[in-house]
Amino acid sequence: MTTTTLDEAVERSPEEAAFDAIIEADSRVEPRDWMPEAYRKTLIRQISQHAHSEIIGMQPEGNWITRAPSLKRKAILMAKVQDEAGHGLYLYSAAQTLGITRDEMTQQLIDGRAKYSSIFNYPTPTWADMGAIGWLVDGAAICNQVPLCRASYGPYARAMIRICKEESFHQRQGFEILLTLMQGTEAQREMAQDAVDRWYWPSLMMFGPPDDESPNSAQSMAWKIKRFSNDELRQRFIGMLVPQAEILGVTLPDPNLRWNEETGRWDMSEIDWDEFREVLAGRGPCNAERLQRRRDAHEEGAWVREAAAEYARKQAANAGKAVA
Ligand code: BYC
Question: Whose alpha carbon is nearest atom 49 of ligand 1?
């Protein structure tokens, strides 16, 4: 045993030892610190996927801004969608500290090479979907993302603090939309229940594949990027939903859902992992539409980027002249 420890000590460079010590001490890795290449890659993967999710995530709700049922609802929805754009920007900035450019990340997204959350490939046919997204999708995001405020990479953890504060407001507004509908007419109650039926299972899929099929979890947990496994967070989410569903008066669409005293876990029906894999493979209900919309927006915004770059170039040239 002593030999192994000695060997390890000989093999580990001072930089690696310093990195391990930061992780061990539950401290933060900062952009200037040395980090293993695989740690950097994992973070770029997760943070850029997360940023893309926020940006693509503006579309399903953006769909309802012009049709919100009142001025108040419209103003709230616009603010929420703008918050999501903001989250995307903080996250792209955090990823940029790892040595990838915003242009590269954007290109990966519009080429269809980058992943973004499966949840945003489902349609939003009714107003109640705005409630279900807020309650279920933002609720799942909070469960998943609060532990990320303690992620080992400083810029990511700090971005997550503000994001989570805003997400918790988003969840409450979704809950309130559903509560209002559930206190309304029979047709409104049916519309709310229908939206919950459609969003419940996809929201459970947001946590990722089951633990025994999650290739990245073990390493990400060892590096303290992830603090809990996919299944642990999924269980925690269900525990949060059950009492809230009772207050709302909606039924969670799983006849097998019950608390198991012996295992201390929620028993539930099997998630349709084929559906999850199809969505990840680009064959979900709205994948093509979401990506096309993002591509169009990118092309339509080209003149704004060009104008901003030209303005920056002129400012820099003028500053140069002033100095000379
Ligand atoms: N959708 O080994 P695993 C939001 C991929 S919330 C698509 O478990 P990991 C918002 C995974 O990337 C949504 N892909 O991976 C809310 C991996 O593929 P690669 C975004 C998924 O990273 C409201 C493969 O499957 N939230 O933005 O350990 C309004 C194997 O999975 C999904 C975040 O991104 C999925 N659902 O764990 C607006 C949170 N699940 O990369 C916006 C940060 C798994 O190896 N991310 N995959 O090709 C995370 O916490 C983790 O990355 C995950 C996955 C829990 C999502």
Answer: 46
